[in-house]
Amino acid sequence: MNHTNGNAESDGWFLSGAGSFLYANDITFVAASTMVTVVARGDYVSGAWPLMSVSAEGQTNIIGTASVTSTTMTPYSFTFVAKAMNSGFGVNVTSGSGLHVQSIAISCPTGTTTTVATSTGTATATSTGTGTATGTSTATATGAMERVGQ
């Protein structure tokens, strides 16, 4: 995961205000219904909760927005029909401030692939087959997050 403004916290990454975002490139999407789940919490600042948007396909296709109105980590899910491509996705603070992101998961149907990214840079991919192919294989990679921009 790459990110702009903000800092690491014990339970995730703090995005400090409008225009701040987390993003990842080189995610392989299959042409199918896809769900992105962001686990986040918000700070009520100056009479407003943070508004986040989630984008895919090179971060140009906004797949959903949500007002993050919980002070505890809560899942926010967005479903879209992905194109078969190697692309990126992002979580952006559209307005307000004080968005805390704990994790981001991307999941697809049959032949499921899930990618989870957290503030510590841990990624987990799981593939589960159905029908004639059964079983689960899991791969885990760990690395540091990299700060990009101001």
The CATH class is identified as Mainly Beta
Bulk shape: globular
Distance between the termini: 16 Å
Q: List the secondary-structure elements in sequence, H or E.
A: EEEEEEEEEEEEEE
Name the CATH architecture.
Sandwich
Structural class: mainly beta
Strand content: over 45%
- Considering the protein shown, what is the CATH homologous superfamily? Galactose-binding domain-like
Helix content: under 10%
The structural domain count equals 1
Annotation field: number of helices: 0
Could you describe the largest sheet, including whether it forms a barrel?
Answer: 8 strands, antiparallel
Total beta strands: 14
Overall radius of gyration: 15 Å
From the 3D structure, determine the CATH topology. Jelly Rolls
Query: What's the overall average pLDDT, rounded?
Result: 73
User: Would you identify the regions where 5 or more consecutive residues have pLDDT less than 50?
Assistant: 118-150
Structure description:
The protein is mostly beta strands and 150 residues long. It has one domain (2-147): Jelly Rolls, CATH 2.60.120.260. It has no helices and 14 strands. A hairpin with a 7-residue loop joins strand 12 and strand 13.
Keywords:
150 residues, mainly beta, six-stranded mixed beta sheet, 14 strands, 0% helix
Summarize the helices and strands and which ones pair or pack.
Elements: E1 2-3, E2 7-9, E3 12-15, E4 21-29, E5 33-42, E6 51-56, E7 61-67, E8 74-81, E9 85-95, E10 99-107, E11 112-118, E12 122-128, E13 136-142, E14 146-147
Parallel strand pairs: 1-14
Antiparallel strand pairs: 1-4, 2-3, 3-10, 4-9, 5-8, 5-10, 6-7, 6-9, 10-11, 11-12, 12-13
